[in-house]
Amino acid sequence: MSASTVQEAIVERATGAGGRSELNESPIYVPPRARIFEFRSKPSPARAAVFAAVGLGAFFLVWQLGHYFSSDVNQKFFPSPVQVLTALYTLFAANNFLADVLKSCYRVFASFALAALVAVPAGLLMGSFKSVRALLGPLVSAWRYLPAASFIPLLLVWFGPNDTSKLALLFLGVIFFLIALVVDNTEAVPNEFIEAGLTMGASRSKTLMDIIIPAAAPAIMDSLRNMIAVSWTYLVIAEIVGAQDGIGAVMMRAGRFLKVDIIMAGILMIGILGVFTDVLFRTIARLSMPWAFKR
């Protein structure tokens, strides 16, 4: 075989049958196929709204089907979504339910504000200084395992069936769990941040105020958002004992007359207020700490 024949064979193999050079051909980028379920992916606002609508629609559909296929007797104790929404509308229109809602909101937010004023500084100090944690840690750990509802008889003896006992119960329901969460949030601040501040000559108080608190603030806000949800779960317990107003009191009065639609309307109202509270805390966090939400 001559040298020219060998050279032609090499050129033909490199260029391919169609005469294009496979060596010089640039690869074609194929974007990955969009999937609905991706690990830790953030859906677009439109898709998130669609998902939320589908979830709510499925919930109310199952609820309606459960009511429809119940017997006539059971339907009285398991009202449909329309009946519950009608009862909720009637409460606002004819029963001055707005005053009860505002009273419950006052109890939750006032008691939680007091708990946060104590828990956040205590948790920051315990998470920053081991000596403070050694001093307060055993007390906080022990009180976390005491159910807040067990204090109801004692609170009634001390304060009577008034707002003070209800605020105290809501306060005890979250304070010690919130301290423990803030301690964990503070200890999660990287040691490199603290060491860098001390190396540059910052005092302990300066390190706490300018390094530890800003670094832990987003996680602390998230802990506050989660724990105020616990306050809402304690609300009915706080208001069923000797209360004359509030959502829990309305539900208890309805229970005496087997008005299940009003009871479920109260439950639905607490859920709506809980969602509003969650959105409120998320909005405050985004506005006050925008650096924590940058990707």
What does the model show?
Helix 5 (97-128) runs parallel beside helix 8, helix 5 runs antiparallel to helix 10 and helix 5 (97-128) packs across helix 11 (247-256). The protein is built from twelve helices and no strands. The mean pLDDT is 85. The chain has a domain at 97-293: MetI-like (MetI-like fold, Orthogonal Bundle). Helix content is 75%, strand content 0%. The termini are far apart. The chain is an all-alpha fold and 295 residues long. The protein has helices at 3-15, 45-68, 72-77, 81-94, 97-128, 130-144, 152-159, 163-187, 191-199, 204-239, 247-256, 260-288. The chain crosses the membrane at residues 48-66, 78-98, 105-129, 141-160, 167-183, 262-285. Its main location: membrane. It is a multi-pass membrane protein.
List the helices and strands and how they pair.
Blueprint: H1 3-15, H2 45-68, H3 72-77, H4 81-94, H5 97-128, H6 130-144, H7 152-159, H8 163-187, H9 191-199, H10 204-239, H11 247-256, H12 260-288
Helix pairs in contact: 4-12, 5-6, 5-8, 5-10, 5-11, 6-8, 7-8, 8-10, 9-10, 10-11, 10-12, 11-12
Summary keywords:
single chain, 295 residues, mainly alpha
CATH homologous superfamily caption of the domain at 97-293:
MetI-like
Q: What is the mean pLDDT?
A: 85
Low-confidence region ranges: none
The total of helices stands at 12
How much of the polypeptide forms β-strand, as a percent range?
under 5%
Strand segment count: 0
Helix content: over 70%
CATH topology of the domain at 97-293: MetI-like fold
Helix and strand sequence:
HHHHHHHHHHHH
Which structural class fits the helix and strand makeup? mainly alpha
Would you state the CATH class of the domain at 97-293? Mainly Alpha
Radius of gyration: 30 Å
Subcellular location: Cell membrane
Organism: Mycoplana dimorpha
InterPro entries: MetI-like, MetI-like_sf
Family: Belongs to the binding-protein-dependent transport system permease family.
